[in-house]
Structures are given as C-alpha cells and as structure tokens.
Amino acid sequence: MASLVLADDHALVRMGLRRILEAQGHVVLDEVGDGLRVVQAVEANHPDVLLLDLGLPGLHGLDVLRAVKRRAPGTKVLVVSAYSRDEFVVTALRHGAAGYVLKGSHAEELLTGVEEVAAGGYFVSPQLAGSLAKSRAMGAEDAKPDEFESLTPRELQVFHLMAEGLTNWEIGPRLAVGDRTVETHRQHIMRKLALKTQTDVVLYALRRGILALDDVGGAPRRDV
CATH number of the domain at 147-215, please? Predict the structure, then answer.
C-alpha cells in the first residue's frame, strides 16, 4: 500500500479521494489546498505519491510539480485533473509527472493509477492516449527556450500571486518577505517575461492556463 499527500483546493474533493484511497488500505499522510504549501507538506511527510490537482491557488500545479521533482525526487507525482487539454497533459508528463488521471474517471482507474505510480510505473487515463503519444514525440525534440522557465522558484510564487491580483503589500505576508523584496522580484519578472502592466501579467497567465477567464478580477482559479 502507498502513502500519499493530497493537493486539491476543494475540501470535498480531498474528502472523496481520502475515502477511496483509505478504503483500499492506502495511507493519506496530509492534505493541502494551497499551492504554496505543497512542497512543504511533501518534504515533511515523504509520501510515496503526491496526488496533485493543477488548479491550485498561490502556485499553479505545474510549477508545484517542478518544485517537487527538484526538492523531493523520491516522491512520485500523479496529476488528478479535470482538464484534458494536450498542453497540460504533455507539460505535466515532461516535467516529471508519473501519471495523469482525469477527475471524471471511475475510482478503479484512480486506484490503478496510484498503484502503478507507487510501484515505479506510469499511468495515463485511456482518454489521454493521444496526449501521451504527443509527449513522447516532443521528448525527442529540442524544446524552444521558454522565458517562463527562467523564473526562480520565488519569482514563480510572486508571479502567480501577481496574476491573482495581489499587491506587493498583500504578497509580502503570504511569502513572509518585505515589500521591497516583492518589488524586486516583480521587476525581475516583468523584465524576463517582457511584460509592462498588470494587464499584461493577467493576459500572460491566461495564455499559459494559470488563470481561467472566470477568475479574472475574481477568485483564484479552481480546478484545471
């Protein structure tokens, strides 16, 4: 049986996942609903598998995935998402996810994914076979440089909070840093991504899928 950490911003989803997993003898060590806390939870608990939603507030799941693979390489990551667009599936797999399960799947599919991933294998929902093939094909090619990939872990955190509409004064306490430090990160981000205004930040986040249209001017994005 596997030990797990659950990362999803919906408490009811986490409750459902926990019940399904524990009924089969798996052990849920922790649950988190904020992208900024996922790596900390993984490092504290050393789970076999992280079940990761992509639409987390604070830090998008794809960036959480990158951080987990860098700081806790022994933990396998199984993405559990409602979003099936090729770019999300392909990016998740290329960034180190060992599997990708759609939230609309049956419980048996989720359990199979957990077992396969925990055993060192890979699992992708059958509906995503085309995305898996595309991921393998792209893996054989040299990727075009991506300015977003040049952001540091702290800059990624600041960018996501900027995209959610938080000011320097609101970002500072979330990250336990001062306003001047946030402003320095903001300037670096805007220069690296060639952005000039807050509108540019929002549009960039929309293009990358970090925000959905329903979230602009409102709450952070929910499920991806």
Answer: 1.10.10.10
Position 136 confidence tier, pLDDT thresholds 50, 70, 90: low
Q: Where are the alpha helices (DSSP H) in the chain?
A: 11-23, 38-45, 61-71, 86-94, 107-118, 129-139, 153-163, 168-175, 179-192, 198-207
Query: Residue 49, SS3?
Result: strand
Q: What is the pLDDT of residues 87-98, one digit of tens each?
A: 788 888 888 999
**Calpha distance 127→205 (Å, rounded):** 27
Single-letter code of the amino acid located at 34: D
How many helices (H) and strands (E) the chain has is answered by 10, 6
Q: What is the pTM of this model?
A: 0.71
Angle between helices 168-175 and 153-163 (to 10 degrees): 130
User: First CA to last CA across the chain, in angstroms?
Assistant: 28
Torsion sign across C-alpha atoms 221, 68, 208, 204:
positive
Domain residue ranges of the chain, discontinuous segments joined by +: 3-139, 147-215
The predicted structure's pLDDT at residue 199:
85
Fold for the domain defined by 3-139? Rossmann fold (3.40.50)
Task: Check: CB of residue 10 under 8 Å from CB of residue 223.
Answer: yes
